[in-house]
Amino acid sequence: MKTKNLRKAINSTFIVAIATSILTLCVTSCNQTPEKKQNETAQSVKTVSITEQEIIDVQKAWGDGIIKIGEVYTAKGDYKDAALKHIHKFYNYDDGTVLFKPTLASKIQFRTNLEGALSYFVGGNENYPEDHGFALAPYNAVRWENIGTKITGNYAVAMGNYYFTAVDGGAVTKAEYSFAYTKNEDGTIEILLHDSSLPYTPAE
After folding, report:
1. Any idea what DSSP says for residue 177?
2. Of the candidate ranges 43-52, 83-92, 137-146, the one whose mean pLDDT is the lowest
3. Where along the chain do its domains lie?
4. Nearest Cα to 125, choosing from 134, 135, 111, 115?
5. What distance in Å separates the CA atoms of residue 125 and residue 86, rounded to the nearest whole number?
6. Are 63 and 166 in contact (CB under 8 A)?
7. DSSP per residue, 107-145
8. What average pLDDT does range 38-59 have in this prediction?
9. Cβ atoms of residues 48 and 153 within 8 Å
10. Which of 46, 54, 111, 163 has the most CB within a 10 Å radius?
């Protein structure tokens, strides 16, 4: 009889211990999970969010790249290679299609591959006979004038005017643009949409 009662007491103690452990584990898990999720979310947002200043910085760097292509061309260097490096640095072709609508194009207005973008910058492609090499002008200054910027997470759209100052004579060409950007996990910002055109001139 005493042995039976002893066994019951041991079993009860064992069950209580297990129940207490499970309850403690649940409470600890419940307390930690929201905090952990908040930290992960905050870290994710911090990683992928674009700032307006980053857009301004990448626009300036893009303009400097256009100037660089013209400098290489003028020095009789490998300007096609310079243009390819520019495209790979600033455009998101590695992840798929980039929507590219250049300023000075009327026959093949919309380019959806890297070949079309490269042709616009440097010309010499028989598939795009209207291209004469926009970046070969050359230019010594590119000035951006953002009218508005819309940012959502790791995506941003900027719209406005940009001005290209030619080296020869200092003539300034004004064009209108809409650019869409994405920020990659490594922090680089690349172009998804490049839409550019000359301002409308009303008929006299």
Report:
1. E
2. 43-52
3. 1-46, 49-197
4. 115
5. 18
6. no
7. SS--B-SHHHHHHHHH---TTSTT---GGGS-EEEEEEE
8. 73
9. yes
10. 111
Torsional class of 177: left (φ above 0), alpha (ψ -120 to 50), beta (otherwise): beta
β-bridge partners, 158: 149, 179
93: DSSP letter: G
Q: Please state, in angstroms and rounded to a whole number, the distance separating the CA atoms of residues 97 and 103.
A: 19
> What is the Cα–Cα distance from 4 to 114, expressed in whole angstroms?
84
| Overall average pLDDT of the 64-78 stretch | 98
Rounded Cα distance between 77 and 195, Å, is 29
Position 168 scores a pLDDT of: 87
- Lowest mean pLDDT across 6-20, 121-135, 142-156, 184-198: 6-20
183, β-bridge pairs? 189
* Range 49-197 classified under CATH 3.10.450.50: yes
CA dihedral 84, 143, 105, 75 (to 10 degrees): -50
Chain-centroid distance, C-alpha 73: 28
Q: What is the pTM of this model?
A: 0.76
Residue from 156, 151, 157 nearest 178 by CA: 157
| pLDDT, position 122 | 98
